[in-house]
Amino acid sequence: MKFIQLLVFLFLGTTCPGQSIEFEPAVKLFDYPGSLQAKFFDPFLPVDFDDDGDYDFIGTDPDTWQVLIENTGSYQFNTKQTFAGYKDNILKITDVNADGKMDAVFETFIALNNGSNGFDIEEPIWFGFSLDVIVETEDFDKNGFTDILRQKSSSTKNDLLLLHSNDGTSYVLDTLASTYSSFGDLDIGDINNDGLTDIVALLEGEDDQALILLNKGGSYDEILIPGLLNGGSNNLFLMDLDNDADLDILIGEDDHIYFLENTGDPSNFTVLQEIDVPDLLFFQTADLNKDGYPDLVTLQKTVDWNFTISIFENLGNFTFSDPALLQEISGSSSYSLNNNGNYINQSINIVDYNGDGKDDILYGDGFSSPSSEHILYNKTTTSSTYTPGTGDIKLFPNPSSGSIHIRSVTDHQGDNFLITDIFGRTVQSGQIDEELITLTSLASGTFFFQVPEKQILVKFTIL
Q1: What tens-digit pLDDT sequence spans the chain (463 residues)?
Q2: Fewer beta carbons below 10 Å: N end or C end of the chain?
């Protein structure tokens, strides 16, 4: 097998939870095409469609149709492509057809990335005008092809969770849930560490808090989490908060974010902690100081109709710092915010925009004139800052399609590892107990292999 050496990032010094996080003042990237009326904004999602190392953007021009904004470098952006006749919410950037290029999923169509020329429109027969509000993609049945999970919303009927299993030539429809009135949000991940991707969905209008669909390899077991919280839940993430190699549940609800600890039993999640977040609209998660513990980025509405973006730093053991205000956005009492599924959650995007190993924050301002896309650059300079260097762990093959081999000059047996995506979210975790690690729950894309205790981070790609 061909050995491929990767660029390895090393922590400088000793790392620990709760190191200081700092960001530079906001910088405007580009003005949105068309005009946005009093609302927070319609998100433009970052995607490097032409694989040139620069993030481009795809989203909605309210005056016309969907548009692709190309990043030509040095803060220069041009409209690359307009999807005439198509105008609806963008839901997901993902590799739909497993060709190594990132595609865009909208409410009623898919835009397939064809490389430097942009995107080709595909209209799956199941989309139509079904008002999809959440879309996730994953190889749920582990057959090597990407499946599509959809939440179909209805004002007159129960919401549906629909799984379109891809066998390589066509999609087979399976209705996973149809007896619940409404879902507030959902996330996917391996809850019980059995190598299969499970589904967790918030319930609205029900006595129970959330629904777990435990993947049994061809079927799903339903587990209900009792109504432990108060008010209306609108935001959910699966994340290993305490670095113990299992996924905990984070729920945003009114003025709080709650943390439900994974005790190893999927039927026994318990509310371990909560933090106060007044007038919370939604939150995102990312390891902003690369200490192995995911931090929180929140969007809140103030009493004078402005918006704030703040950071809660993860101090370890389910504890967080007081909020640090990053940005205030002048708003309006007549604002509107599309609070549908993962459309709202993607109004803030967290990516390593400039390739320095630190996650930056992208957001739009729909109240400025003209409306525009902005970035907050991460300038964290503590001992958690990544610097290119020579590491003692190498992964191969890279790119990989199903498993990675570990080569090391030192012994890492028993060390905890994390695999995170470009947004800083933990997508797989465990202990290094052998040379081969199977990539159990990962779609195509760029990921980072971390050994926090040994200050190691390795970047790799899955085809």
Answers
A1: 222 223 333 333 333 444 589 999 999 998 887 655 445 556 788 999 988 888 999 887 666 678 899 999 888 999 899 887 776 777 788 888 778 788 888 877 888 999 888 999 887 655 544 566 677 888 888 887 888 888 877 666 788 898 988 887 888 889 999 998 888 788 999 999 888 899 999 888 788 889 999 999 889 999 998 887 765 667 888 988 877 778 899 998 878 999 999 988 988 888 778 899 998 888 999 889 888 788 999 988 888 778 899 999 998 888 899 999 999 988 766 665 555 545 555 678 898 898 888 899 998 887 777 788 899 999 987 543 333 333 567 676 666 656 677 766 466 778 888 888 766 677 788 888 766 677 756 666 678 888 877 777 777 777 6
A2: N
What single DSSP character describes residue 352? -
For the chain, the residue count is 463
CA distance 292 to 426: 9
460 close to 404: Cβ distance less than 8 angstroms = yes
> Nearest 5 degrees, angle CA 92-CA 296-CA 185?
40
Taking the C-alpha atoms of residue 442 and residue 3, their distance in angstroms, rounded to an integer, is 22
Which residue(s) pair with 374 in the sheet? 28, 363
**Structural element, H or E, at residue 343:** helix 341-345
Model-wide pTM > 0.85: no
Euclidean distance between CA atoms 48 and 457, whole angstroms = 22
Task: Find out whether 31 and 372 touch, Cβ atoms under 8 Å.
Answer: yes
> Cβ distance 399 to 461 under 8 Å?
yes
Partner residues linked to 165 by β-bridges: 172
Q: Determine the Cα–Cα distance for residues 147 and 139; give it in Å rounded to an integer.
A: 5
**Is the Cβ–Cβ distance between 309 and 297 less than 8 Å?**
yes
How many Cβ atoms sit within 10 Å of the Cβ of residue 171? 16
